Amino acid sequence: MTIARGLEGVVVCNSEISSIVDGVLTYRGYNIDDLADNATFEEVAFLLWNGYLPTKAELDQLKEKLEQHAEVPKAAIHQLKMFPKDVHPMSVLRTVVSSLALFDEEAEDNSVEANKNKAIKLTAKIPTVITAYARIQQGLEPVAPKKGLGFASNFLYMLTGKEPTPVSVKAFDKALVLHADHELNASTFAARVTTGTLSDIYSAVTTAIGTLKGPLHGGANEQVMATLEEIATMDRIQPVIQAKLDNKEKIMGFGHRVYKNGDPRAKHLREMSRQLASQTGDTKWFDMSTEIEKLVYEKKGLQPNVDFYSATVYTYLGIPRKLFTPIFAMSRVTGWTAHILEQYAHNRLIRPRAEYVGKTNQVYVSVDQR
Ligand SMILES: CC(=O)SCCNC(=O)CCNC(=O)[C@H](O)C(C)(C)COP(=O)(O)OP(=O)(O)OC[C@H]1O[C@@H](n2cnc3c(N)ncnc32)[C@H](O)[C@@H]1OP(=O)(O)O
Ligand SMILES: O=C([O-])CC(=O)C(=O)O
């Protein structure tokens, strides 16, 4: 048997959703640079699910549906209030998304129509869950979703209780666009594995959230901010990074399984971080980030991935770092569900092999003789 550790380079399916070829990322054939500069998150969600950009009427209809489904069942808010106040929001999100299935009469209906509806419902409800728990953790009441704000704006509104500035909304919306899909990344693959058994969409998204949480994947964005806070000042960059490299620790937000010459999303987030830094008048985190970028390239030849500059973008938007990975999930759920729909449409059980290297010819000995 030939072993592809970490399934590196293994192609397991055809997909029409997103592609990474020669370092260029596209969603449904549209270059990510074009979408990042011009499209809204709602347009991108529609594009991922349906394969084409919506007409004005289709976009309005999707926005309306997202607003209509943004409320979560009272039981979910009750559940959030009952949880310990100090657990990771990704654990909370994983648990609540799983339990939302119990309140959805379509949960076990695996028709295409029902699954498309559930993709919209999940996308609509996840921001409400994230912001409700964030407020409950601070001893505050959750803020109900407000109609007419738009997806990005409504998240910031539910988090703070105040309508955000257009500049914040634009930056946040662009970050959501940049995170929406990424070919067969670990969490999307995990969602496809669950879907491959013909389980339901809530199970597949719950699987994906659990997979995104890890620091080698979506959890890296929170760890980037933790590293910046640990370093704290410019003069400590060189010694702290060097010590991490000497200890063979990973520098969070750098490196990528597929991109070896840079992640095309990182330049957008770097520029957004730079702009937000200058608008807030606090350039410290941005300046530190660019220094770290230079140093890590010099020492290891590694470039920033999507997680590196998203950390400072969210920080400049006033978002606490424990919410960075949940925000990733709130965007990526559109990509996950697009892949889940595609998996159902062309399904085959995903079941690779392992080469056995354990003991052989063992003979059972009864417990009193061991
Ligand atoms: C949204 C996302 O999921 S983007 C990725 C987010 N994750 C991170 O930012 C965590 C930090 N980065 C990493 O751990 C890795 O680069 C991964 C997991 C993203 C990719 O991993 P792989 O493709 O398996 O690369 P692998 O870990 O084999 O790295 C190859 C070499 O580069 C080194 N390397 C890779 N990334 C880093 C890093 N961030 N810091 C230090 N060294 C690194 C490895 O130690 C290894 O060195 P070696 O050959 O001397 O042992
Ligand atoms: O594709 C990957 O391996 C990780 C990644 O960048 C993403 O999920 O956005």
TrEMBL record:
Pfam families for the chain: Citrate_synt
List of catalytic residues: 256, 307
Gene Ontology process terms (BP): carbohydrate metabolic process; tricarboxylic acid cycle
Alphabetized SUPFAM superfamilies for the sequence: Citrate synthase
Associated pathway: Carbohydrate metabolism; tricarboxylic acid cycle; isocitrate from oxaloacetate: step 1/2
Gene3D superfamilies: Citrate Synthase, domain 1, Cytochrome P450-Terp, domain 2
InterPro entries (UniProt xref): 2-MeCitrate/Citrate_synth_II, Citrate_synth-like_lrg_a-sub, Citrate_synth-like_sm_a-sub, Citrate_synthase, Citrate_synthase_AS, Citrate_synthase_bac-typ, Citrate_synthase_sf
Family under the similarity heading: Belongs to the citrate synthase family.
PANTHER family: CITRATE SYNTHASE, CITRATE SYNTHASE, PEROXISOMAL
Protein name, as recorded: Citrate synthase
Taxonomic lineage: Bacteria, Bacillati, Bacillota, Bacilli, Bacillales
